[in-house]
Design brief:
Length: about 260
């Protein structure tokens, strides 16, 4: 999860991934907060891989390498939370509800035949709503040895067993650059230690929203909860700075701006 987020926080790489796997030609791309705000202290926290605004359309991008047998439930939970957070502004009519797109990359067999499946909510084979769409790309359906396949380079990146053999497979400049990034975190011990240090700053799920509550009572507004989340991110950023982690990387991990981090 960390490596996926780290590499594809680069917009050039992410735009190519979206185009090659999901035929999405992104012009304007914005990274949104990957931690979904929960409404009360007992609710479950949602932490997605990537939440994006792609040309005005809210998009969830998820990678799942291992079958945890809760795939459809997780995507439904995430998309429902995203719809609540971003679907409408206060006072808007329900007819203005925004579309939510969910793009999932899976590395285990889920459906029978297709490399890519598009799923919509239906009733008796009629579309119930166009507001939510799931696209599932199954890496296992692609022959990683077929160099004529248009997914050849990307699928090998996701299914690498011996990383040094990929030099011969990567032909395009952008995938060569992505490969060098992957190598850093697989072969460079200092980079790996830094990655593990950063992962250790991520708190257990139940603690993520501790600061959104006062004396056991909920703060009455979403604004109050958001302020609690930001304060929590500041604490993580301070700890990372004390470990001399680069400020640009701290910004990517916490979502705080470099100016906010400098002010700490």
């Amino acid at each position: 999860d960390y490596l996926f987020k780290k590499i594809f926080s680069n917009q050039e790489y992410l735009k190519r991934l979206l185009l090659d796997l999901f035929d999405v030609k992104a012009e304007k791309l914005e990274y949104l907060n990957t931690t979904l705000i929960k409404e009360n202290k007992k609710s479950k926290v949602g932490i997605v891989d990537m939440l994006l605004n792609i040309d005005g359309e809210i998009t969830l991008l998820e990678l799942q390498n291992i079958n945890r047998h809760n795939f459809k439930e997780r995507l439904l939970f995430y998309s429902s939370n995203i719809m609540t957070l971003y679907g409408l502004k206060g006072g808007e009519d329900y007819r203005n509800l925004k579309n939510i797109k969910v793009y999932a990359i899976i590395n285990y067999k889920r459906f029978n035949n297709n490399i890519k499946d598009i799923i919509k909510l239906k009733r008796k084979n009629k579309i119930f709503t166009e507001k939510v769409e799931f696209q599932i790309f199954d890496l296992t359906k692609v022959d990683k040895n077929d160099s004529n396949n248009k997914y050849y380079e990307l699928v090998n990146l996701f299914n690498v067993q011996e990383i040094n053999k990929l030099d011969k497979i990567m032909k395009s400049d952008i995938y060569k650059k992505i490969l060098e990034e992957i190598k850093k975190y697989n072969l460079d011990s200092e980079e790996r230690i830094e990655m593990e240090n950063i992962i250790n700053f991520v708190e257990p799920e139940e603690e993520h929203y501790e600061n959104a509550y006062i004396d056991g009572f909920e703060i009455g507004s979403r604004q109050g909860r958001s302020e609690g989340i930001i304060e929590n991110k500041r604490k993580i950023a301070k700890s990372m700075i004390e470990e001399n982690i680069d400020i640009k990387l701290v910004s990517k991990i916490t979502g705080l701006t470099q100016e906010q981090i400098s002010a700490l």
